[in-house]
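So, can you check what follows?
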Amino acid sequence: MAGFTSRLFRANSGRHFANPWRHLVLTIVTPAGNQNLVTLETVKAALGIAGSADDASLTFLIGQASSMIATHCGRVFIKEVVNETFRPTSPGFKAALMLSRYPVFAIASVTERGLTLAASGYAFDQASGVLERIYGDRAGCWSGACVVAYTGGYGPDGIPVPADLQGAAIALVDHLRRRAGSNPMVRSSEIAGIGSNTYEVPSTAIPEFITCSIEPYRALPIG
């Protein structure tokens, strides 16, 4: 069951609230091909770059920028199929599970105490990854260890990467490109009989104007 708005989610403005469920293990079943937030074609169009001469360096920077943004936000953004295990720290507490990979594209199965639940036995909020136990027409409490098999994250064949997140990645690629010069993978060069140059390694700090735009995507602490 999808499309609900959790009472916990509404009351706490996101994922930052006490959670008596402890995430134990997340196993990646089907990994993403890469974790890039934006495609090479989109970056070239946005920055007005023609031809393929810069493709290798741009691809490198797209990966670097995407990794920097994901690290800053404390999240994995790109869609993967995972199994996530939770155990309660206090039995009988009315709580939701907080899936770590969101938005949630689809849930394949949910098991509680080793028993597979019917789809009517749970409900999830796609955007936040909040998963609630459902008994008939009401939300209840999870009663034991749970394993959730699901697909979460953004992807071209599912939930697209939001435009502002793509824009932040493009802006960071442009920033890193300007700092590094024409080829960010080259750290030094030497011209026979003339001398050598050492290029500055791009800073790992994300400019403030970019961090402001990605702040809504940060994973807030739970607990």
About this structure: Residues 4-18, 191-195 have pLDDT under 50 and may be disordered. The chain has five helices and eleven strands. The chain has one domain: 21-181+198-217. Residues 8 and 86 are 18 Å apart (CA to CA).
